[in-house]
Amino acid sequence: MTAHSAEPAHGSRGPLSGFRIGVTSDRRSSDLVSAFERRGAEVLHAPALRIAPHEQDEQLLEETRALGAARPDVVLVTTGYGVCRWFEVADAAGLGTELTEVLDEAHVMARGPKALGAVRAAGLEHVRTTVHESTEGMVDELASGGTYRCVAVQLHGYTDETQLTRLSALAGSVLTVTPYRWVRPEAGDRLSRLIEAACTGQLDVVTFTSAPGAAAVLDAASAMGRYDDLVAALRGRVMAAAVGPVTAGPLVEVGVDPVVPERYRLGALIRLVCDRLASDQVLRLRAAEQVLELRGRALTVGDQEVLLGPTALALFRRLAATEAVVPKRDLLACMPEGGDEHALEVAVSRLRRTLGSTGLISTVVKRGYRLNAARIPS
Asked: How many domains is the chain built from?
């Protein structure tokens, strides 16, 4: 953190100008990052997990040969990426034709449109999707149809033991195929910084695109001793945004209520984040004849815009939350790096200079400070 509480804003303004967004995904993260940055946001990218191919493809080939021998009557396909990689490895080993035959003979069910498109791209037309686009939904549909001789499942990065147990009760045998796996990134510094930024209110949104990734963020926060702080932040001012209800699951379990788009797609997630930030996270105040607008950490006072540092942002938000006097102890509690009353006085003095008017913040002797502005209803 720099010694200054604010810096001039720069760059072209977009609908997300001033906002800081944390992106925790690995796959297709560039799509999310570039989309938010094009709209003016600052992005902190820290993959909680990354997708790694098998160190040796022989395991995948053994699983493919097992399918060829078993000829399952049902194959559940969960991800388009997994299907593409599965066929890529099988083709390289001369097993592509056999894999196509196995899937052509089986009843193939795809978890969503991307998985459906990948299967059809492989030349298979007899495939359908589920209504709820989840592994649980596919198993529900199978459960309504009776029992089966053999069911095969293409796993998506991690093993869903609950659904595999359910399948074991429906089928004589259950085979699994894992074209890729989730692994923790070797460098954890970026994720630690993202968690710390969320805990101290320096992020406006954290996005999640997979259930394992969401669980990994919570696990990392626990290892840092910041679990309670992160959960509190995601329950409060820092918006959690998940691409779908399955991804949201680990967050919901700990009492976080993430926003989820109606269509479980990255594009829909991006639009939802933009809409929610514009409607819920833009603070407008009137002080005499002057209008103040806070978008993320970008504060506009009249025709001047500055980017607030962490301490200035925390103080301004706390002062703007009420028209009453805010006690010094409350302001000290919200300062990211803590401090004593002298540090608070220095920080408030810097914030006054940033606002360009000493009259906007009043000192109430022996009590605290008050922001002389009223919120403008949205």
From this structure: 3
Give the strand order in the sheet containing 107-110.
127-129, 107-110, 74-77, 148-154, 171-177
- 10 vs 4: CA distance, rounded Å: 16
Judge contact between 81 and 27, C-beta under 8 A: yes
Give the domain-ending residue among 280, 314, 339: 280
Give me the residue label for tokens 């939350």: 321
Using 50, 70 and 90 to split pLDDT, how confident is the model at 56? low
Whether residues 103 and 157 share a domain: the answer is yes
More confident position, 306 or 205: 205
Query: What value, to the nearest 5°, has the Cα angle with vertex 103 and ends 102 and 109?
Result: 145
- For residue 205, give the 3-state DSSP assignment: strand
DSSP designation for 124: -
Residue with tokens 């997708």: 51
- 327-365, pLDDT tens digit by residue? 999 999 988 877 888 999 999 999 988 888 668 899 998
The boundaries of the domain holding residue 264 are 19-41+185-280
pTM reported for the whole predicted model: 0.72
39 backbone dihedrals φ, ψ, rounded to 5°: -90, 5
- Determine the Cα–Cα distance for residues 240 and 237; give it in Å rounded to an integer: 9
> Cα angle at 323 between 306 and 206, to 5 degrees?
50
Residues 303 and 256 in one domain: no
Tokens 């093993």 correspond to what residue? 159
Contacting residues for 126 by C-beta, under 8 A, at least 6 apart: 104, 107, 108
Mode of pairing for the β-strands spanning 42-45 and 171-177:
unpaired
Neighbour-count burial of 185, counting CB atoms closer than 10 A to its CB (0-12 exposed, 13-18 middle, 19+ buried): middle
91 and 75 in one domain?
Answer: yes
68-86, pLDDT tens digit by residue? Answer: 999 999 999 988 888 998 9
Angstrom distance (rounded) from CA 349 to CA 345: 6
pLDDT at 187: 54
Residues 176, 197: one domain? Answer: no
150 and 58 in a common domain:
yes
Asked whether the predicted pLDDT for residue 3 surpasses 80, the reply is no
Cβ–Cβ < 8 Å for 133, 244: yes
Residue 2 domain flag: no
DSSP-assigned letter for residue 284:
E
